[in-house]
Amino acid sequence: MNTIALTFRLLWLVLDNTFRNPLRTILTALGTVALVLVVTLVYTVLNNLDRITQEKSSNLKLIATEKWQIPSQMPYRYVAGLSQGAAREPGDVKPEDYMSWGFFAGSTDSDASSRDFNSFLFAFVMEPEKILTMMDELDELSPTSQEYKELKAAVDRLQDNKRGIIVGLERLAKLNRKVGDRITLYSRNYKDINLELEIVGTFPAGRYDGSTVFRRDYLNAALDQYKQEKGTSHPLADKSLNLMWLRVPTREAFNQVATQITNSPEFSSPAVKVETASSGIGSFLDGYRDLLWGAKWLLAPACMATLALVISNSISISVRERQTEFAVMKVLGFQPFQILLLVIGEALLIGLTSGFFSATATYLVINEGMGGLPFKIGFLPTFDVPASAIFWGTVMGGGTALLGSILPAWSARTVKVSEVFSRVA
Amino acid sequence: MATPSKVHPMSARTECVVVDHVKKSFRRGSEEVHVLDELSLRVPEGEFLSLMGPSGSGKTTLLNLIAGLDRPTSGEVRVRNEPISKLSESQLAAWRTRNIGFVFQFYHLLPVLSAYRNVELPLLLLPMTSKERRKQVEMALDIVNLSDRMHHRPGQLSGGQQQRVGIARALVTDPALIVADEPTGDLDSKSAEEILALLVALKSSLNKTIVMVTHDPKAAARADRTLHLEKGQLVEEVIHTEFKPAPALQLS
């Protein structure tokens, strides 16, 4: 008889056998669920890191930073030249857009001894209009979307209010403030510079939940005021430009602008290096290279090996208990390979079902319930579980079940009828 | 002691089982154990034969050889003219499905399956529609008088009922030969009597050839003929009834 037809007929037998010992089946399934969950999370992080460090070929963002020092601290006067891509000669390429970055860390708590994470605030200092044109993901919002309209209104208010600040939803909740509230920001990195700010809006939910942005000209004014009051420049006055982003249309334009900046004497002290956003993030992640390598090549395989052992152990116990049954089936005419398929089928049913359930639940909970997996290194975005994880999670559950069941299934296949019955008698 | 004739004297019919100069030996460590020694035997179609003998006499080994579960070291076993010793493992498995019904001492029903599904199990290997399977299973359960218990699992049935399900499973593919290894060995006397009556009925009304191993002289006496084995050889033959083959009927 056709093997496929027989396999189909045996499906109900596989189902019945799977629920023969519900506790053991549930424990095996839970093990599979937990391990597929871990591997799915690891896969999600690695997949997203791969994606964001993948070089694009068009619409590139070029990052200019100080060449020899981390953190990068460049003089603000660099903005004028860098924003033009250091173009001096006819034929030089100019960027399509730019954005300057300053980092301002502080607390809303005036008492340094009682400051905690809830009152902490890390702000990007930048040109307000660049929020909509240069910031990752926000520059891709559809102008007709509600999110864009609300953000645009916030940006407009920021442009009207020099002391305005836009705060991410999560940070706003931690500060226990609302839009319209005024806060005093006591600086940690810009010593003796305290800023009076008014919350003028929020970012769309998601990637920028923990972020805040206020205006560059307000920081510059505060630094000028410091000089007037103290009679000397603030130590960071000439180091307030941390990053510069330039948008260029093509890889060729990128190479040209990079050469212009690198060769320009204007940016020699301190020297400036140029890279793409992807390679910049790649360089940033270099410090985590061993951790990520371990997650990919040690943690994930260890999880899968453990899962295979768990399933193998469970199926082995089941096969030992059912040796007589397999012998009876052989007496009835079942071929050894059909017995093998039956045992593997039981393992696959548990593995595939649990893998699918685990990966699907992870996908739904993280993407729909949590709005992405927070990966709090630097200013990396939250990571969505890729839809392909549902497929791979299912395959992984099934694959490890297959691996784990091969030896027990082979043992069931080779049961010797006469030996089994001589033991029974 | 009478010399065994090894074939029923009244039989002029086709032989269902022919065991021809069969030897069977096993290796136990460095020692070779001879279980069957040049044993020959003929069982005509429709005969109910019982095999008796002390433990280790080779009766279960002989039964396994006849059922195609084991192979002789030398000699030949033919069932309905098929030299089964020459079949490959997979050919033997397919052959068993169609030609042999096996009844076990301890029933060996699959505990997760209902009586109906246990009986249906061997039919899954045959090219039959589910409707055909259902008809066949219901008929087999009807023969063993268990139609009202078909949805019960083995754990919900008595020992006698479980053995009747086992007989229905052996019967459902309509095999020519039913082999039974101490089918009453695990039953009380009342249930044992019911099972023996059922086997006799299968033989007389469906013309099944039955080879049964038993330790119980009362059970053996229900057969047409009893062969005694000792040390791998047939040593005695007792004829209980005059063997009158029933007209050949088919289950379906």
List the helices and strands and how they pair.
The complex is a heterodimer of chains A (425) and B (252).
Chain A lengths: L2 H16 L3 H31 L5 E9 L11 H6 L13 E11 L12 E7 L3 H4 L12 H15 L3 E4 L1 H7 L6 E6 L6 E9 L9 E4 H15 L12 E8 H13 L8 E5 H9 L3 H33 L1 H10 L3 H34 L18 H26 L3 H8 L1
Parallel strand pairs in A: 3-7, 4-6
Antiparallel strand pairs in A: 1-8, 1-9, 2-3, 2-5, 2-8, 4-7, 5-6
Chain B lengths: L14 E14 L2 E14 L3 E5 L6 H8 L7 E6 L2 E2 L5 H11 E4 L11 H6 L9 H14 L15 H13 L5 E5 L7 H18 L2 E5 L3 H4 L4 E6 L2 E7 L13
Parallel strand pairs in B: 3-8, 3-9, 6-7, 7-8
Antiparallel strand pairs in B: 1-2, 1-4, 4-5, 9-10
Helix pairs in contact in B: 4-5, 5-6
Structure, described:
The complex is a heterodimer of chains A (425) and B (252). Chain A is built from 14 helices and 9 strands. In chain A, helix 1 crosses helix 12, helix 2 packs antiparallel against helix 10 (289-321) and helix 11 crosses helix 14 (417-424). In chain A, strands 2-3-7-4-6-5 form a 6-stranded mixed beta barrel. Chain A is α+β, with helices and mostly antiparallel strands. The mean pLDDT of chain A is 85. Chain A folds into 2 domains: 3-53 and 288-424, no CATH class; 69-270, no CATH class. Chain A has helices at 3-18, 22-52, 78-83, 130-133, 146-160, 169-175, 216-230, 251-263, 277-285, 289-321, 323-332, 336-369, 388-413, 417-424; strands spanning 58-66, 97-107, 120-126, 164-167, 182-187, 194-202, 212-215, 243-250, 272-276. Chain A starts with a helix and ends with a helix. With 252 residues, chain B is α/β, with parallel strands linked by helices. Chain B has one domain (15-239): Rossmann fold (3-Layer(aba) Sandwich), CATH 3.40.50.300. Chain B has helices spanning 59-66, 89-99, 115-120, 130-143, 159-171, 189-206, 217-220; strands at residues 15-28, 31-44, 48-52, 74-79, 82-83, 100-103, 177-181, 209-213, 225-230, 233-239. A 6-stranded mixed sheet of chain B has the order 6-7-8-3-9-10. Chain B has a 4-stranded antiparallel sheet with strand order 2-1-4-5. In chain B, strand 4 (74-79) and strand 5 form a beta hairpin. In chain B, helix 4 packs across helix 5 (159-171) and helix 5 runs parallel beside helix 6. The longest helix of chain B is centred in the last third of the chain and has 18 residues, at 189-206. Residues 1-12 of chain B have low confidence and may be disordered. Chains A and B meet through helix 1, helix 11 and helix 14 of A and helix 1 and helix 2 of B.
